Amino acid sequence: MIKVLLSYKLQGIIATDTDTQLFFKALSVIHAGQIWIDNSKLKALLGYAESASFSQNLDKISPKEKEVVILVSQGFKNREIAHKLHISEQTVKVHISNILRKAQASNRSQLVPLAMQLRFSPS
Fold first, then answer.
1. Which residues are registered as beta bridge partners of 13?
2. How many C-alpha atoms does 30 have within 13 Å on its Cβ side?
3. In this structure, are residues 48 and 25 in contact, taking their beta carbons and an 8 Å threshold?
């Protein structure tokens, strides 16, 4: 995961629901030349480091599931994902359930590293 951060020159990762004060602190840290990773995303990254299952199951994730997992990682709710992808909210729930099972993850925040890997891996 660190390899992805470095190879794509990402300087920060922050949650979409971060309050304004913390957002400006993150910008300040990045502007000072440091890397910012939101605590919830850092926990997800550490969880990812403990499990190699994401890489093993990457090819088992369908194109639609890839779209869903990327939107989940961006903080969208099921209803918003359904609207964006023109599918039902129930279908989104099924996709998320399948993704969690395939990635051997227990919650949505653990999908962030997987989403990053999917976004930056060749299709």
1. 37
2. 15
3. no
Residues whose CB is less than 8 angstroms from the CB of residue 39 and which lie 6 or more positions away in sequence, other chains included = none
CA separation, residue 14 to residues 2, 38, 58, 66, 78 (Å): 15, 5, 24, 20, 20
Question: HSE of 85 in the Cβ direction (CA atoms, 13 Å)?
Answer: 25
What DSSP string describes 23-53?
A: HHHHHHHHHTT--EE-HHHHHHHHHHHH-TH
Find, among 47, 85, 79, 83, the residue nearest to 66 by Cα: 85
What average pLDDT does the segment 93-113 reach? 88
- Residue 22 per-residue DSSP state: H
Residue-wise pLDDT tens digits, 25-63: 988 988 888 878 777 776 666 665 555 555 566 678 899
pTM: 0.58
